[in-house]
Specification:
The chain is an alpha+beta fold and about 450 residues long. Helices cover about 50% and strands about 15% of the residues. Helix 1 runs antiparallel to helix 2, helix 8 packs antiparallel against helix 9 and helix 9 runs parallel beside helix 13. Bound molecules: adenosine-5'-diphosphate. Its main location: membrane.
Length: about 450
């Protein structure tokens, strides 16, 4: 390029000098010089015009204009640059097409939106699963098309660690699991997975457990009834039967407790027992439960104390809350040695309302904590025989809290007691309405 450039400059200067010399030979060097400069200027303007026209629409003719000399070189370079640009463009377009084809082939629905939720692109499965239409929905806000309120709050929350499950807005029999990821300039990639089969299987499992428990309850009540009568009249029985009858009666009571918990858990899980948003007086509820806990403690003489620092009411299902709180408090009694301390506190802060049940009991090895809320999971299986627990208590607590938008937190270590904390969102706290006195009337 450097070589060509100086050669071109030399050629132009030689041309002008040559024309000036011819002018000198003809008697007027200035005419020769002016003629050469004018011709060069005219030629340069002509080439600039061609270049200008081609740059205005380079795709009309793939070939850049042809010329000689300096302009020829400039046109050649521009042509090469244009060719490289075109092939890069083709390669990128092929890559985009390939990505779009592969996402189109996916069974999951994929949608791209900007930070406000305006729809930019979606694949074929999203059209089928979510009912989007390419002709009308481009640029629409996604919450106007998926109108479930849970979806809008999930989209706005920006906390996408857990997926959301909803029914398809277009085909309500399809159950979808929605997962959002953030990318680019706060844009969203939304993946919708059809989990209908899994959901139905889970539903069948819950129904089966619920139905079996119901069916078992009646025969068991009859057996327990007869066993109780026999225990009451144990003196009339031959001594070798007494022990057997007492064991059978204790085991049938355990089975009854198990069936009661299974039925309760399946109701809470299936949503059959939907949250009846009544206003619960937590202070009163805790006092009632603690009276029962004191009775359960019996001659073990646990020191039970209740501290309530927030007197507002809790919006939620009182019977579900009673089950959850009593499971935690009764567990504290069961797993704390005689004369141990159990502290139940109800308080609130910026994050919401919290119930803490703290004991000075045997504690739990932290490796068990993540699995404690699974059904029938026991930190120490050898011990549960003494406590007579069903193994479903913490599973019930977890589901009750889920139904109340809450969460359970467990802190414990072997030998230094345990603390179970239930968290409820602030929005569930409701001010007490002052009771009307006679003087107000
Ligand atoms: P269970 O009916 O066996 O008590 P839960 O679901 O209520 O079943 O509790 C699960 C397990 O968690 C228990 O078996 C026990 O090992 C452990 N656990 C629960 N609460 C406590 C506590 N306060 N202290 C020590 N361990 C506990």
């Amino acid at each position: 390029m450097q070589y060509n450039w100086s050669r071109h400059v030399r050629l132009i200067i030689s041309g002008i000098i040559g024309a000036t010399l011819i002018g000198l030979y003809l008697g007027s060097p200035i005419y020769g010089f002016t003629f050469a400069v004018t011709v060069y200027l005219w030629w340069t303007l002509k080439q600039t015009g061609r270049l200008y026209k081609w740059l205005g629409n380079p795709n009309a003719s793939e070939q850049a204009p042809q010329s000689v000399g300096l302009w020829g070189d400039i046109f050649d370079h521009l042509h090469r640059l244009h060719q490289t640009h075109l092939s890069t463009q083709d390669r990128l377009r092929a890559q985009i097409n390939r990505v779009q084809e592969s996402t189109n082939a996916m069974r999951d629905g994929v949608v791209m939106t900007n930070n406000r939720g305006s729809m930019e692109w979606w694949n074929g499965s999203a059209e089928y699963l979510l009912g989007f239409r390419r002709t009308t929905d481009q640029g629409q806000l996604i919450h106007n098309l998926i109108r479930t309120p849970a979806f809008k709050s999930y989209f706005d929350s920006r906390d996408y660690r857990e997926p959301l499950e909803i029914n398809s807005p277009a085909k309500p029999h399809i159950h979808l699991q929605i997962q959002i990821s953030l990318f680019g300039d706060d844009d969203r990639l939304i993946v919708a997975k059809d989990v209908t089969r899994l959901y139905q299987l889970e539903q069948m499992r819950r129904d089966f457990v619920g139905n079996v428990s119901h069916e078992m309850r009646t025969p068991l009540t009859v057996i327990s009834g007869y066993l109780e009568t026999m225990v009451d009249n144990a003196e009339d029985l031959p001594p070798k039967w007494r022990r057997a009858i007492n064991t059978m009666s204790a085991q049938s009571s355990r089975m009854e407790a198990l069936i009661t918990d299974l039925i309760l858990l399946s109701k809470i899980e299936t949503g059959e027992q939907t949250v009846h948003d009544s206003l619960t007086d937590v202070e009163e509820l805790l006092e009632q439960i603690c009276r029962d806990a004191q009775a359960l403690s019996g001659d073990k003489q646990h020191q039970l104390s209740v501290q309530v620092s927030d007197r507002r009411l809790l919006r939620g299902d009182e019977s579900q809350l009673r089950s959850a709180f009593s499971n935690l408090i009764f567990n504290a009694v069961k797993y704390t040695p005689p004369k141990g301390q159990i502290t139940v506190s109800w308080f609130s802060d910026r994050d919401g309302a919290h119930l803490s049940v703290k004991d000075t009991g045997i504690g739990i090895d932290p490796i068990h904590i993540p699995r404690l809320t699974e059904r029938f999971y026991r930190a120490d299986p050898s011990r549960h025989k003494d406590t007579g627990g069903t193994g479903l208590g913490l599973a019930i607590v977890k589901h009750v809290l889920l139904n109340h938008d809450g969460a359970l937190n467990i802190r414990s270590s072997i030998g230094s007691g345990s603390e179970f904390i239930c968290h409820f969102p602030r929005e569930r706290l409701v001010e007490r309405v002052p009771e009307k006195t006679d003087s107000d009337a």
